[in-house]
Design goal:
single chain, 5-stranded mixed sheet, alpha+beta, 13 strands, 254 residues
């Protein structure tokens, strides 16, 4: 704004001009503070999935029917078994007869159990010794699970004929610090005792994980008690797991 007072007004009009200019300056909008680059970067990073295309892909760029169950979901909902997490995923059917430890199978979109391929960290774990090549979910704990990616629909072109119903990829946790440890002990109904522990560590190129899980329950009768079933179907599980990895290059890991 340019203010030119008339000559006869003298100093009085000049002071009025200065006051008006100052008022306009105070009322001008203040430009927003520059955003923190680190905060802006975190806000822009999309969630990545690896099952849909076998490479890291932003979840909003995946054209297939894909659902993800994270470790935060498992902890928030107090899920004790992976099959209980899968019950919440559309298109997934979980079948278990009896109490914990009984044979448990999962199928996708109504196809047979042998048409669902199960992976752990990308490695096929379906048991070929069974009449139907399936994976036994009943003995898998949730303590080491980072997330579960469920890819529904035929994926034979990527994973072979065992994936005509879909793929369930269980991705385990990796350490983010040089050393971390966790332990848990629980007791519940039917004389159920569950204990678990894990240690993890990471350096610039190397990471490792080791865990131990134990579960024991007196169980209940899988047979209808009103028809004479009185025996309890107990179950005990002891599971151990260990992984180690090294980043050979920025794109290769062993």
């Amino acid at each position: 704004m340019t203010c030119r007072p008339p000559r006869p007004a003298g100093a009085m009009h000049a002071g009025a001009c200065l006051l008006a200019t100052t008022a306009l300056t105070l009322l001008a909008p203040v430009p927003p503070a520059a955003a923190d680059p680190a905060t802006a970067l975190d806000a822009e990073l999309p969630e990545l999935v690896v099952t849909a295309n076998r490479v890291e892909t932003p979840v909003d760029k995946v054209g297939s029917a894909l659902s993800v169950v994270t470790s935060q979901d498992i902890e928030r909902q107090q899920i004790r078994r992976p099959e209980d997490a899968l019950r919440r995923v559309p298109g997934v059917t979980v079948t278990r007869q009896g109490s914990l430890g009984r044979p448990t199978a999962v199928n996708l979109r109504g196809l047979g159990f042998r048409n669902t391929l199960v992976l752990i960290d990308g490695v096929e774990v379906n048991d070929p010794s069974r009449a139907q090549v399936i994976y036994e979910f009943g003995t898998l704990p949730t303590q080491d699970i980072e997330r579960i990616e469920v890819l529904r629909g035929p994926q034979s072109s990527l994973y072979g004929s065992d994936a005509t119903g879909g793929v369930i990829n269980i991705i385990t946790k990796r350490a983010e610090t040089p050393f971390e440890a966790e332990a848990a002990l629980e007791y519940g109904s039917y004389n159920t005792i569950e204990a678990s522990g894990a240690v993890r560590g990471r350096t610039d190129r190397f990471d490792y994980t080791a865990s131990l899980f134990g579960h024991s329950t007196g169980g209940f009768s899988s047979f209808n008690e009103r028809r004479g079933g009185q025996e309890d179907d107990g179950h005990q599980t002891i599971a151990a797991a260990a992984t180690a990895g090294v980043e050979l290059t920025d794109h290769w890991r062993a």
